[in-house]
Protein-L-isoaspartate O-methyltransferase
Amino acid sequence: MRDTTKHQGLRNQLANVLLGKGITDQKVLNAVRKIPRHLFIDSSFEDHAYQDKAFPIAANQTISHPYTVAFQSQVLEVKEGEKVLEIGTGSGYQTAVLLELKAEVYTIERQHELFKKTSLFLPKIGYRPKKFIFGDGYKGLPEKAPFDKIIVTAGAPFIPKALLGQLKVGGKLLIPVGDETQIMTLLIRKSAKEFEQHELGDFKFVPMLEKRN
Ligand code: SAH
């Protein structure tokens, strides 16, 4: 678990690249400058960890591009102490960003291998979500609802109703919707029944899968 000044330098460069791509939220950029992304991926990719690239992690999944993570984090406008539900823990990198933004994080992963790996790894490097959940993100987490923010980090074929119902009024759900490519979709709950919807461009995620393995 080595983190060196060289890694730090590469992280600063990555933050500048993200700034050039339109990430202007300083708290998000500071999280990128701080989190040792090279420790979240296989050591054979270590030299490339601070390029704006996605990499394979366990169970045929990927760690998202830093730009995608930063974009989703910026759009969510997470404030200190907010209750955030993350669907698709994966490597835990997005989880670490949410924790750097001082959110109270609940994170769900449906692949047991990743759930186990990441729930052991994150606390080792000092990142402690309120709860790691092994389960199906389509259902959300009704027992801890409502949430200020819900972030989905897998491509969803449709917007799950359960997630909309678990938002506070004023809360935001950010979810990539589509099959091959996805449209990043932001839903803001205006009242018990009203949601405002914004489409924020095309992205590519691994699919959000319905059944547990
Ligand atoms: N933010 C993560 C993204 C990982 S890829 C990262 O950057 O590392 C998406 C993750 O969503 C995968 O780990 C996948 O197993 C998980 N996933 C897919 N369908 C899911 C579901 N229905 N519920 C919870 N997690 C799911």
Notes: The beta strands are 55-56, 62-63, 83-87, 104-109, 131-134, 147-152, 167-177, 182-189, 195-203.
